[in-house]
Amino acid sequence: MFEVWPENWDAVVMWCRVQTQWRTSAGGAIGLDYSVLAWLFKMYAVDDPRALLEDLQVMEGAALAAMNKES
Known about the structure:
Oligomer: single chain
Strand content: 5-15%
């Protein structure tokens, strides 16, 4: 369990939704499949897709660094 500040809630919820959408190669995860994000943003009527994408990219970068450190 962890605390999420209200201003980060939408990014965390969307982050949880995209966890099955990693692009991979023989070396492991290389990033999220951004084509899925457009569909999800539309489906969930995201008010500011650019800001949410930027938030997700920060999370993606941190996740990739952690995953690559483990391998």
